């Protein structure tokens, strides 16, 4: 059973609809026992880094979630801010992240006139993927996904970077450490590529 974690952020229904249409067993989960029964977990995320971490800390499931990721080692997928909280810290706030992928979250800074792009990045962007990543199996070259963000993740270890995009600068937009995955873009809003990505994750 794939658990879609309800900790007060994210578009749970969009993920649920896609998984239902793909024929995968899923459940919106919010308790320790539900986390313990899940075989995979999706961490949606909309909002600021500190507010999302605070909601997660106040949900009383953080210990169970950590055990699922680090002890049971079930597949975990963080999306948007749900990916950013996998990092150690963020320029957006003062709270510590989960630290499951050693990295920092940084803000887009476009200070020169020639490179003054609008922040946040809103809309579609093509990404470059590492061929070996299971998340992007069955997709065309340089698939496009929907983004909505002002911050991006910077990994300490480049081996954790499985996809990148360009928005004024090249930035990492998907990460992986063992059983833990993250995407800065929104697969639940990215039509056929997003459906394929969620199918790939659900099939791990």
UniProtKB/TrEMBL annotation:
GO terms for cellular component: cytoplasm. One of its GO terms (molecular function) is lyase activity. SUPFAM superfamilies: Class I glutamine amidotransferase-like. Pfam families: GATase. It comes from Leptospira idonii. It is found in: Cytoplasm. The active site is at 80 (nucleophile), 186, 188. The gene is hisH. IGPS catalyzes the conversion of PRFAR and glutamine to IGP, AICAR and glutamate. The HisH subunit catalyzes the hydrolysis of glutamine to glutamate and ammonia as part of the synthesis of IGP and AICAR. The resulting ammonia molecule is channeled to the active site of HisF. Keywords: Amino-acid biosynthesis, Cytoplasm, Glutamine amidotransferase, Histidine biosynthesis, Hydrolase, Lyase. Its EC number is 4.3.2.10, 3.5.1.2. The keyword Cytoplasm applies. The keyword Cytoplasm applies. InterPro entries: Class_I_gatase-like, GATASE, Imidazole-glycPsynth_HisH. This is Imidazole glycerol phosphate synthase subunit HisH. Pathway: Amino-acid biosynthesis; L-histidine biosynthesis; L-histidine from 5-phospho-alpha-D-ribose 1-diphosphate: step 5/9. NCBIfam families: IMP_synth_hisH (TIGR01855). Its main location: cytoplasm. Heterodimer of HisH and HisF. Residues 4-201 form the Glutamine amidotransferase domain. It catalyses: 5-[(5-phospho-1-deoxy-D-ribulos-1-ylimino)methylamino]-1-(5-phospho-beta-D-ribosyl)imidazole-4-carboxamide + L-glutamine = D-erythro-1-(imidazol-4-yl)glycerol 3-phosphate + 5-amino-1-(5-phospho-beta-D-ribosyl)imidazole-4-carboxamide + L-glutamate + H(+); L-glutamine + H2O = L-glutamate + NH4(+). GO terms for biological process: L-histidine biosynthetic process. CDD domains: GATase1_IGP_Synthase (cd01748).
């Amino acid at each position: 059973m794939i658990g879609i974690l309800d900790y007060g952020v994210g578009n749970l229904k969009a993920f649920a609809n896609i998984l239902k249409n793909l024929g995968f067993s899923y459940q919106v989960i919010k308790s320790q026992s539900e986390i313990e029964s899940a075989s995979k977990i999706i961490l949606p995320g909309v909002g600021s880094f500190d507010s999302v971490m605070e909601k997660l800390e106040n949900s009383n499931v953080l210990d169970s979630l950590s055990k699922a990721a680090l002890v049971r080692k079930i597949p975990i997928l963080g999306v948007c801010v749900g990916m950013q909280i996998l990092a150690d810290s963020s320029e957006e706030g003062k709270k510590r992240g989960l630290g499951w992928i050693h990295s920092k979250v940084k803000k887009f800074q476009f200070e020169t006139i020639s490179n003054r792009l609008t922040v946040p990045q809103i809309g579609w962007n093509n990404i470059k993927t590492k061929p070996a990543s299971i998340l992007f199996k069955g997709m065309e070259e340089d698939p496009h996904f929907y983004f909505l963000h002002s911050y991006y993740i910077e990994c300490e270890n480049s081996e954790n970077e499985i996809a990148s995009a360009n928005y004024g600068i090249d930035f990492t937009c998907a990460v992986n450490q063992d059983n833990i995955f993250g995407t800065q873009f929104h697969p639940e809003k990215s039509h056929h590529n997003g459906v394929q990505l969620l199918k790939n994750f659900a099939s791990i």
